Amino acid sequence: MKILKFLFLFTATAILMIACEQNKSPLSTDDINLADDDAVAEAIFDDIFSTADNATQLLDGFLKGGDVKSDIIVLADSCPMVTVDLSDELIKVITVDFGDGCTGLWDQTRSGKIIITVTGLRRQVGSTRTVTFDNYYFNGVKVEGTYVTTNEGENSNDNIVFSTELTGGKIILPNDITIEREFYREREWIAGYDTWNIWDDECLVTGGATGTTYKGYTYENTIISALHWKRVCKFFVSGVIQVNREGVDPFEIDYGDGGCDAIAVLRRGDVEKEIMLRYRHRILR
Predict the structure, then answer these.
(1) Per residue in 24-46, pLDDT tens?
(2) Whether pLDDT at 246 is above 80
(3) CB atoms within 10 A of CB 160
(4) What are φ and ψ of residue 35, in 5° steps?
(5) 173-187 pLDDT, tens per residue?
(6) Which candidate in 16, 55, 92, 199 could, as Cys together with 118 as Cys, close a disulfide (CB 3.0–4.6 Å)?
(7) Cβ(80)–Cβ(98) under 8 Å?
(8) In the chain, which ranges are E strands?
């Protein structure tokens, strides 16, 4: 009988130890990979926003200058050729052509075309920018979808807000496996909106997204603390996203405390894991 009691106590202790160990390490490989897929998608489509916004600012300046003899301008923060179709008085079409491939400021290699259909000046409330892609590749992956940005006017903080909606977003890897992405976001411009210097631009980003990962997991995320975007930085400098996937507890992606770096922290409960933010999917690193 004493032996049986001992075995029972030993077994119960072992189970308790395993449970405690699981509580200490609740972030699985699937969680980490999901966070990586989400962060890569975030970075790629945020780069597209920056490119389109930059090109639209240049168009505004070009039109306001009154010189419409030339239909070619050059993008300030990268290497593509940008052309503007001025044939329609109300709708302008900007084509950002990266050709067979060129490398940007942060070593991101892009090829193909980003096409931006513009209605109204960037600063005009209600104006829109609709982004589509023509065989566009970003660091070896093909990007698809329709990305619409609308000037919503001033909010209660007297800051201009742009809504951004992505539908049918896809990141297609070389093995034809697809990461899917859709979102609705609002960007509150907190610095740089009234200047022509793009490098002082800052926004607070709120909203949510849905997606399917490289492994086929569907998930949704919600920004629970506004993401702080600075054009001079490669990634968001702060803010928190909560990620939800069926069958597991949610976890958070924390972009930090304001530093212009490539580090984020995954968090579930008291357990944290640091990850490196990248523009390139892990299968291509």
Answers:
(1) 448 899 999 999 999 899 999 99
(2) yes
(3) 20
(4) -60, -40
(5) 988 889 999 999 999
(6) 92
(7) yes
(8) 72-74, 81-85, 91-97, 102-103, 109-119, 128-138, 141-154, 160-172, 178-191, 202-212, 218-230, 238-245, 251-257, 263-268, 271-276
Which residues 6+ apart lie within 8 Å of 55 measured at CB? 75, 82, 94, 96, 116
Is the CA virtual torsion 69, 71, 74, 79 positive or negative? negative
Four-point Cα dihedral 274, 278, 281, 285, nearest 10: -90
Cross-strand partners of 172: 142, 178
Two tokens, residue 40: 């890569």
Amino acid at 57: Q
Token pair for residue 3? 């032996």
Provide the residue type at 202 as one letter. Answer: E
In the numeric block, the tokens 């589509």 are attached to 132
DSSP 244: E
Residues 6+ apart with CB under 8 A from 74: 81, 82
Q: What is the pTM of this model?
A: 0.84
Contact 167, 184 (CB under 8 A): no
Query: What residues does each domain of the chain span?
Result: 28-218
Helix (H, G, I), strand (E, B) or coil at 183: strand
